[in-house]
Amino acid sequence: MSQTKTDKAWEILFERHKILQNVQQNGFFEIQAKEIKEVREPRLMAKFDHFSHLPKLFKDHGLSILPISRSSYVIGEFDVYEKVSYNEKLKPIQVEFPANITTIDPANLYSESSALHCAHVTGMMEMLLGEPSFQTISGRMSSKEFDFMIRTRKGNEKLINIKNSQIEIDGGYESQSQFMIVEAKNETVEDFLVRQLYYPFRLWKEKTDKEVKPVFFTYSNDIFSFFIYEFTDPQKYNSLKLVEQKDFIIAHEELELEDIVEVFHAVQTVPEPEIPFPQADSFTRVVDLLGLLVENDMSKDHITRNYAFDERQTGYYTSAGMYLGLIEKYTDENKQVMFTLTKAGRGIMGLRTKDKFLSLTEMILAHEPFKQVLAEYLQNGSLPEKARVIEIMKRCSLYNVQSESTYFRRASTVIGWINWILELPETY
């Protein structure tokens, strides 16, 4: 895989400051922002919201980085991420959108802040807290001073001292007896950086005598997912424990299997485009990417740096969107390749829940391999085996797919997308 600018810059710094040797000797290494800045802007070099974002050298040696003040960072073999497992069996609770609210469009919640505001006005926060709440804080603030223990990958614990590090809170909600801190992402994620909840938790635990509730929130595919945590030992970074997950959705017309069958019978297939056949197994992530592009056009680098996609996935998922005719690319004035939604993509993403997912189903089934695999499911009541899916694909004259191994990999996408369609009535 190609090296990123961040990878190259960290190679220089590791060499210059003998970072690896220092970590092996002392268990950690402190680096100043100004030392990082000699090579590249610190904000691009030290903020990795997901494990997949870490530079290659960090991944190879099991390292991570945390800010300890406004001008310094600590690097060590620390365990800083928490895995997120979505409970697939959870049926989202339907909430009504208030008819008198005109400044939030529930069909257009593609920024983290608009999703959080919508969650608040529809009473989700109240249901999580069990009492009415007010949003009281958001944005950047100073962590003040505190210290904590963090686990290293060897199972030891290291004491870290924080002094006025900058923190950012997406939303803080105060009720009569609780204060809920929310870290928000507008996509499905595999993990998150515990620091984004822990530093604010420690700050506000000192400032209020109310119970401080750390909550991680994602808005993806029209579902509001809240992961309510507790730190079982406030002095320990790694004492995060999941209490419960709660999912919500804005009340909408139910989506039935009959609706999908109707789309299946009505859809006209299109000739296969001269675009690589998709290798993007999770259609949920395709929808996330479309949602991210509603707000802004983005370059490949921007998508990779800011969202839970690694470089390879960004390539696969933008290409999948182009295959469906929902994303296109252009070159901007800086000669940078940018991705944008097509007219069809923008139109679909502005629809209400049921219409949006049926329109996306239609875009998938307009392609022969997907339509034929679904036809076999509707006929037999079960999905065909992978070998049979490959057989179907081979009859559909796919663009530039020749080798057996490529067919095998792409068949996973066909099965993944058809499963996504078949799960719609369960979820929506």
Do you know the CATH topology of the largest domain? Arc Repressor Mutant, subunit A
Radius of gyration: 23 Å
Number of strands: 17
Structural class: alpha+beta
Low-confidence stretches: none
Count of structural domains = 3
Question: What composes the largest sheet?
Answer: 7 strands, mixed
> How many helices does DSSP assign?
17
Please tell me what the overall shape is: globular
Level-2 CATH architecture of the largest domain? Orthogonal Bundle
Portion in helices: 40-55%
Measured distance between first and last alpha carbons? 38 Å
Biggest sheet: strand arrangement: 5-14-13-12-10-9-6
Tell me what portion of residues adopts beta-strand conformation.
25-35%
Give the integer mean of the pLDDT values: 95
- Using the coordinates above, name the CATH class of the largest domain: Mainly Alpha
